[in-house]
Amino acid sequence: MQDFAMYFELGWQHICDWQGYDHILFVTVLCGTYLLADWRKVLILVTAFTLGHSITLALSALDIVKVNTSLIEFLIPVTIVTTAVINIVKKKRSPATLRISYTLALFFGLIHGLGFSNYLKSLLGKSTNITSQLLAFNLGLEFGQVLIVLCILTVSFILLNILKIQRREWTLFLSSAIFGIAFIMCIERLALIHFK
């Protein structure tokens, strides 16, 4: 039980750590254009992302899938840039665009899970029975992710309902700012990719 609590804490601290802010940026750009009233849509988005990163986190941590760490570190900001661009060009929210968003959240979750796995594998060392640690770490990640989403939706609520900022203006501002940060990350990490 003590191990479970420790890995749970490591999970939520990892996703909420400002030093690894790429995951915070992704969750922000993924959910930041929604309202509190859209909580069902946000729940589906976050669940799709969770499902994706849970799969690859487990596969990689169990050494079933081997990854090129430098390539994954480059692809993570690519997912952020792509999501930001979709937010910027998307004019209306239709059922078709929602389905695309859910599918991309799942796919991008697969990439982010591989990024999380590097951290988890370094914690586990040579441990062979990692099921409970993997579960605790993943639940911790989800707890941290929920905290981030709640903060984002609260900020959106204040800006749109109290300060009366237009929703489209907020979407363009948020997505453009995150696009700029993530694009610089892409350029910096592109030079660091090495293929074996």
TrEMBL record:
It comes from Mucilaginibacter aquatilis. InterPro entries: Put_HupE_UreJ. The chain crosses the membrane at residues 20-37, 42-65, 71-89, 101-120, 140-160, 172-195. It comes from the Bacteria. Pfam families: HupE_UreJ_2. Keywords: Membrane, Transmembrane, Transmembrane helix. The keyword Protein transport does not apply. This is HupE/UreJ family protein.
